[in-house]
Amino acid sequence: MASSEIEVVSSSSVSKPNNDQPPILDIFTASAHGDFNKLRTFVEQDGASVSLPDSNGYYALQWASLNNFHDIAHYLIQHGADVNAKDNMQQTALHWAAVRGSTLAADVLVENGARVEAADVNGYRAVHVAAQYGQAAFLNHIVVKYHADFDVPDNDGWSPLHWAAYKGFADTIRLLLFRDASQGRQDKDGCTPLHWAALRGNAEACTVLVHAGTKEELMVKDNSGNTPVQLAYDKGHRHVAPFLSNQQRASRNYWKGKLCSGIVTDIGYAPILFCTIIFLSILFINSVVAAPNLKKITAVVGLWAWTALSSAVGSLIMFYKCSSKDPGYIKRPGDLGTQSDTEDPLLNIDLNSSSVWMGNWSQLCPTCKVYMIFF
């Protein structure tokens, strides 16, 4: 059970600048370090080509995008750089922008024709890379602004949610679940995101997935027959395994199949109360209204008795409606008849709000799909 994530090859002279001034030797190092003046010199005076890769097969536009130098990316594109150029791994500049969450560079790329759905040799798109590196803001940005598919699988069947769970990025998981990413999707190994979170011992990721999921997901088995709980125990994750085990035990319904094929327990105490009301009504009729050993009741008493029975029947009807129907929610007084459900601030969350962009992803509730504001 293994899958490889995107690799951005770095060298000491390009992607890891030290405290000393790094040597700017060509358009690639100039793009990587954001030296605009040197870059212009290489291109306009020395005639360096911006459309050719370096010795490793990487493009100057990729280095600029990786480090979010959007002005340099724009300059390179203006001078002939291909926004969809691919390296040896079929990765584009947008893939590299996703590694470090370079949203400004991504805007320049997409606005100049970069394909948001471009995939590399592993089937990774920008959304997968963003999930692999926990870049929730970048992921949300390309989903909102460019309608990127946030639930698409890669060549191994891993969705971005699989990657976020595997790497333990809880905020990215919250965002994806908030956007209704499929939590029960199984990859080629039969694993759900919860399997991978349990396998890696990512406690917070497991907590978010369990609370937002269903009890059936705790019971899903992979191709080897293992549930998330078994994987956590096999890997010796002492914090995750007991938590998942307790959740699995709590979700089991021992009465299912024993009483009305589980219908009674799905409703809760409703059948008991229902039977109690019927029993008391029958008892009232036999012992009071139509009891042969009692004196004949007067018309007033009889009217009262049948009124009580009618109320009991009415209560049964209302009890059924209350226990089986969706209660809905109460609109604010000023909104009655003037505002549709989709315009309600709790139902239409704006993920472009400044508080979300500040990184407060923990305020997203993936279970009830609301944005929690704390005072």
Automatic annotation (TrEMBL):
Membrane spanning stretches: 267-285, 297-320
Superkingdom in the source lineage: Eukaryota
Enzyme Commission number(s): 2.3.1.225
PROSITE patterns (UniProt xref): ANK_REP_REGION (PS50297), ANK_REPEAT (PS50088)
Annotated GO CC locations: Golgi membrane; plasma membrane
Recorded topology in the membrane: Peripheral membrane protein; Multi-pass membrane protein
Location of the protein in the cell: Cell membrane; Endomembrane system; Golgi apparatus membrane
UniProt keyword annotations, A-Z: ANK repeat, Golgi apparatus, Lipoprotein, Membrane, Palmitate, Repeat, Transferase, Transmembrane, Transmembrane helix
Annotated SUPFAM superfamilies: Ankyrin repeat
SMART domains assigned to the protein according to its UniProt record, in alphabetical order: ANK
Family in the record: Belongs to the DHHC palmitoyltransferase family.
Protein name (Swiss-Prot/TrEMBL): protein S-acyltransferase
